[in-house]
Every structure is written in structure tokens, then in C-alpha cells.
Predict the 3D structure of the following.
Amino acid sequence: MKFSKKIKNMDHSPIRKFYKYAEDAKEKGKKVYHLNIGQPDIKTPDVFMNAIKALDSKIIEYMPSQGIPELIFQIRKYYERHDIFFDNKNIIITNGGSEALTFTMLCITNDGDEIIIPEPYYSNYNIFIKGTGAKIVPITTHAENGFHFAKEEEIISRITKRTKAILLTNPGNPTGTVLTLKEMRMIADVAKAYDIFIISDEVYREFVYDDSPVTSFGQLPDITDRVILIDSISKRFSACGARIGALLTKNEELLDHVLKLCQGRLSCSTLDMIGATELYKLPPSYFEEVKNEYENRRNIVVDILSQIEGVVCRKPSGAFYLTAKLPVNDAEEFLIWMLTSFDMDDETVMFAPVEGFYETKGLGKNEIRIAYVLNEKDLTRAMNILKCGLEKYKSLTTA
């Protein structure tokens, strides 16, 4: 039997393939601090579960394929607080941001079409894009300048007749890079000139630090026909397992095509949409508290990394990730060593090697992504273990 070229062209998750080493370490009695995956330890707000518990229904019914009207309305009100204005018809509820991205790619690409993405990028973009038969065209970014990519000539030089969109995460994963409104304006002008979509994955929108303003491509009214916003409750409300996302656009033809796919999968989870509706009613003070928590965590990580000779890491402006270049030849080998051969008082650390976040082969071999999703005490401990482990590893490999 034969399998499709599309599935063979996909890669396994560069994050999850190292779990066997972490599980082996735990079986040997070690504690593993997980800095490898974006699973926040922030408590999911009580309103989510309270709404589900309060449900008085003897049947869990199908909901509308677009999503329940009250959730759509609350998302619309949330965006209005950011001076971004949608009608209810412009919002489609999806099974996480992942489904929103998958449906977008199914609607806009044919085999061989191209999507421009700054690399390193969120590794699952590989699945969403290559699963449709399209290909990724990368813009390579670098640790030395904070992984910034918004240069007009860099984008235009990659546009061909097969280019359908530029896809970006703002704030960024895995780098934490945040676009300014000036940079977004430039990208918007390029998209207009070359008639391509802008797919803006903004699931970390609230997490922008150092008193910088929150930005969104939804704030640019002249490109509403080509902007596709991807959103989710996963990170914003620390509700990763609820799997409720949203696709927002004013392109009515795209909305019609996406709705076909939504009707094919019938509906999102009724219970999760009910809980998500209450999350979007939370006041702005909730986001401010969570943002301050992540900003403090970011500072801990950057402060400790800055103490390690040979590490290259610019302070990121958003999300809850950073990517750092280490003074090692192979970050994957270093991670395996940390999990199998190193501990401090039976404790060690797991992070994500970044090579699998690049489309260009051979890049990122000495880079790691750290997700600062642990409380400040555990995060400080984990980073000091990483610091000691790296110093020990360097002494062994350079001896």
C-alpha cells in the first residue's frame, strides 16, 4: 500500500519527539522542569468551568457550524476594546487556532502554491501548509538582531506568481518578536501591491511587554479584504485543552468557503464554546495581571541567560517564548545529555531545540526555545539548572 506525497512531506513535531528521554528521566526518579512546550501554569479562570457546571440541559446538541451566537458576539466585543471592528458574520469559531489555519490553507492554496513565513516559525505551520500540497518559502531571521524580519526587500524578493500569502505570528512563537505598526504598514502595502493575503496568527496578542502598545493587522482598515486573523483561547485564557479558536476576516468570499468546511465538520464542542463565552466577558484587568506575570518571568530568563558566556539572546518583546543561541554545536545532543546524563539534586530541564522550527536545512542547530510558563520560583530553579548544565557540557565537549 502507498501513502500520499503530502503526508510524507510532513515532519514529526520537533518538540514532542524528545518526550521519551524526559519520561525515562522521570522513571529514574528525576524531576524534569518543562520549558519545552507552551502549556501555561496560569489557572484557567473559574468562569469557564462554572458556566459548564451551570448548564441545565439533558442533551448536548450540535451547535451552529459558525459557532454559538453569544460566543461570536463576545469575541466581537473583545475586539472592539482594541479598536478593531467586526460584524458577527466576520467571525467563525473553530476547533482551536489550528483548525482556523488548516481551513485557511485549504481555501487559498493549490498544489505547489507558496506561503512566505519568517523562520524560525511555529513548527505546526509545517503540517497546516504542506498538508494542502503547498510549500513554505522562508525569510531567515537571526538571533543577533532579535529575529526581526520586516524588511520590504526581503519580502518582495520571495514573491512569485505562486505566492498566496505571508503568514506570521505576532507576537512571535518561537522568538517573542513583536511587529510595530510601521512594520505592519509596510507588510500591508506589499500585500496590496502583489495581491496576496496576510495571515496573522495573534493568539498571544495581550502579551506585549515594556509598556509597548498591542498591535494587530486588524487595525489597518484598508486591507480588511486580505487580512485573515487567527485567534484562540488557548494562551490568552490558559485554556489549551478547550480547543476553541476563531478565524476573523472581512473577505466575504473566503468566509463562505470556510463555512463549507465548518459545515463538513458539523460544529465545535458545545461545552467548550459555552465556557469560552464567559472567558471573553472577563475585564481588561485580567489580561493586565497575566501580562505582568509573564513579563516578570521573561526578565528572569533573560537575566540568567545573560550571565552565561557565549549565549546570544536579545530580550523579546512579547508572547511567552524566547529563542537563544547557545555555545554548543548541536542543541538536540545537548538536550538529550541534559535528560540522560545531568541533574542537580535529581532535577533537570527540558527545552525545545529550534532546528525543527526552520524550513532551511542546517539552521538552528545551536538554538533553543524556552517557554517561560512556570511560576517564578520554579522558573528560576530551572534556569539555574540549565546554566550549570550548559557550563558542565561545555567543559566536557571542549576538553
Summary: The domain at 46-284 is CATH 3.40.640.10 (Aspartate Aminotransferase; domain 2). The radius of gyration is 21 Å. The longest strand covers residues 163-169. The chain has two domains: 5-43+288-397, 46-284.
